[in-house]
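$ ./design --mode recover --in tokens.txt
reading tokens...
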């Protein structure tokens, strides 16, 4: 699967407004790479308090968007087995914030699977705005069974 829209994103991820932070997937490939988009608008609820005079997307939410992208990469390669799973963030290393994300930006989320160790995926993640790196991190995530 190389590209999918918001309907497919919502099929794979359990997140919903206001916490669904991916609008579209532009590219995936068999090597373990995914590129997704988040269109950042002034209507985002977090801009009411961060900061009203100079709205900036919180860095932790950019990290959350990257974590959601890792879930999309994992679930898109999993097939039908994803419905009974939640993809949980289990670790963040080497996170660096190199720029701000503001209303009107289009956040490009790039994640690449580095390795899978006993069900825990390790990912190299980058968030860019206009080709400029704004956040990078290494993340570890794990698929876990949903509880009823």
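writing sequence...
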């Amino acid at each position: 699967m190389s590209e999918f829209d918001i309907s497919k994103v919502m099929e794979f991820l359990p997140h919903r407004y206001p916490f669904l932070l991916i609008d579209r997937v532009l590219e995936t490939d068999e090597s373990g790479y995914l590129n997704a988009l988040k269109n950042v608008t002034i209507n985002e609820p977090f801009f009411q308090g961060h900061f009203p005079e100079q709205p900036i997307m919180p860095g932790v939410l950019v990290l959350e968007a990257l974590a959601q992208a890792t879930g999309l990469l994992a679930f898109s390669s999993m097939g039908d087995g994803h419905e009974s799973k939640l993809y949980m963030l289990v670790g963040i290393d080497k996170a660096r914030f190199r720029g701000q994300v503001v209303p009107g930006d289009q956040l490009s989320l790039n994640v690449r699977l580095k390795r899978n160790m006993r069900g825990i995926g390790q990912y190299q993640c980058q968030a860019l705005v206009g080709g400029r790196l704004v956040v990078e991190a290494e993340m570890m995530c794990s698929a876990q069974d949903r509880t009823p």
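exit 0
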